[in-house]
Specification:
Blueprint (H helix, E strand, L loop, with lengths): L1 E10 L2 E11 L3 E6 L6 H8 L7 E6 L10 H4 E4 L11 H12 L4 H9 L15 H13 L5 E5 L7 H16 L3 E6 L2 H7 L2 E6 L2 E7 H8 L3 E5 L3 H8 L10 E4 L5 E4 L3 H11 L5 E5 L3 H9 L14 H10 L4 H12 L32
Parallel strand pairs: 3-7, 3-8, 5-6, 6-7
Antiparallel strand pairs: 1-2, 1-4, 8-9, 10-12, 10-13, 11-12
The structure holds adenosine-5'-triphosphate.
Adenosine-5'-triphosphate (ATP) binds next to strand 2 and helix 1.
Amino acid sequence: MLAVRELTKRYGGTTAVDALTFDVRPGQVTGFLGPNGAGKSTTIRLLLGLDRPTSGRALVNGRRYTDLPRPEREVGALLDGGAAHPGRSARAHLLALARATGLPRRRVDEVLGTVGLTDVAGRRVGGFSLGMRQRLGIAAALLGDPGCLVFDEPVNGLDIDGVRWVRGLMRDLADEGRTVFVSSHLMTEMQQVADRLVVVGGGRLVTEAPMAELIEAWSHARTVVRTPDPGILADRLRGRGAHGRRVDVEQGRDGGLRVQGAGPEEVGDAAHRAGVRVHALYREEASLERAYLELTEGTVRHAASGSGAPRGADAALARDGGDGDARRDRGRRAERDDGRRADPDGGTGGTTGRDGHGQDHDAVEEDR
Ligand SMILES: Nc1ncnc2c1ncn2[C@@H]1O[C@H](COP(=O)(O)OP(=O)(O)OP(=O)(O)O)[C@@H](O)[C@H]1O
């Protein structure tokens, strides 16, 4: 079990993680979803004791990582599949890790078998493909047979076979009763594998719910109508659904109206009665992907060079009048979203050079 409580991490003027609270439970794959810069890697680093929180707690089985007597037996992590020394063989790499953490040698052959690297275990890691390195990273994470597993963007750069294999493995690990926490910025990927989602944006929690619930809540069709008189039509449509249904209308940034609760026929008839011209009218199927993009809109951290972060959120707030907690949060996040680290890769500074257990405790320092 992993737990994050009011977790906050600031790097100078940037709040990477902002009062985040959520649980990751055993027996499930929990997806950790958010756009680039949302704070996923920072949260994971805090969980693994690779960085210190500014405030709040990140707990593994109820304790801080640094307080765990045998952390490698409780949590394993894949943070950087390419972290093994290129001159070493896969087996030598895992043997070194096993020795360093006092794990039995037999675990090395077991995990090599689990990840399908037995036949190439004697080959130098330098000659490994990305997929093989990723498997090796996962083998390292599994070495201590931990109950919790954390995978940071595990399918990045993998071909379809590799992606399927990672998905299957995560499922198996969860079915064995382990806690599986996997980060991604791709909703489509999460939809394939996660039982539950924790969505973050701008360092804050956007939503946390079982996948089935999110699909149910977000997967409904809406009607799009383009007209030169959107205000008149919106007024006619709002709150006047057939059969007592509630109709919600919001205006997109492109000027078109998005109508929830009324189909194209109903909208077309309403336009006709109002004497409003219609330039386009169609049904748009909602998807979880689009819902995710809307929820996290405006939370993406932009380059510091004056690109100005909050355009998307401002537009979204303007069009929906600021109703809804997630959208209010989105606006607040956007207001705060005024800085980022100087590192041009915008990525996970200080996460390299570690093994699969995230043992390099002093690898990261803040405010550089
Ligand atoms: N060591 C650091 N020093 C300064 N700022 C940092 C550091 N690490 C992360 N940040 C900043 O904190 C914010 C969150 O970054 P983080 O890497 O946690 O996001 P992420 O969700 O993992 O995104 P990505 O998918 O791009 O890695 C970003 O604005 C990032 O630039």
